[in-house]
Amino acid sequence: MFCEKIKQLTALLEKQELESPNGIVSAVLYSELFAAYLYQNDLSNARFLWKRIPQNIKTGNNELEQMYKVFTCLWNNDTSGFYKAINYDWSKNVSELMFELKEKIQLETVNLVGRAYSSIFENVFAEMTNQTPEMIVDTCKSLNWEIVDGPFPRLIIPKVPVTEKPISTSSEDQLQKLTDFVSFLEN
Q: Are 143 and 96 members of one domain?
């Protein structure tokens, strides 16, 4: 639902930019469009937007410069830098979007850790997800992950979520079905 609203917002903002005189719009519109691209993980469009924003708008706008730092961290897969860059006092027109982006990245990172790690130190997990020890305990409980106490740092043992595998058919079965279908059409 939220993603669909962001797609609609992006289309509206792009249309406003295209229809504006000389193709130049306000810094507010640029920041909203930049934030929408970041939320959608559309880093290529975010990069091209940054390149086409006039230099006088970029340099005079701290929020756009901070958004570019967020973009750079996402582009370089720098999660700890991302959390530092996104902790900014955003204007009201992009604050909700940037908050949602932070939550989304945090959730994606937790899911990635669950699939990719058999164990991870708590301090590494905290840096990757920007969570406090209390938040980590809550996250681990909600996902049924184990936390092994011991000498600092504690060890987190993620459990891979059980997912149903799609029903797969062998190539021979698919070829047989295709042959039967073609035979049916010919007769």
A: no
Domain around 158: 117-164
5 touches 100 (CB < 8 A): no
Which pair of tokens denotes residue 70? 């967020």
Do 34 and 46 form a contact (C-beta atoms < 8 A)?
yes
CA distance linking residue 82 with residue 69, whole number of Å: 8
The answer to whether 64 touches 34, Cβ cutoff 8 Å, is yes
The amino acid that residue 96 corresponds to is: E
Residue 161 confidence (pLDDT) above 90: no
The number of domains in the chain is 2
Distances (CA, A) of 115 to 29, 42, 73, 101, 142: 38, 24, 22, 21, 16
For the beta carbon of residue 109, count every other beta carbon within 10 angstroms.
18
Q: Please, what is the end-to-end C-alpha distance for the chain in angstroms?
A: 47
Q: Reply yes or no on whether the pLDDT at 171 is more than 90.
A: no
The answer as to whether 182 is a domain residue is no
CB 77 within 8 A of CB 135: no
pLDDT band for position 94 (cuts 50, 70, 90): very high
Q: Quote the pLDDT of residue 1.
A: 64
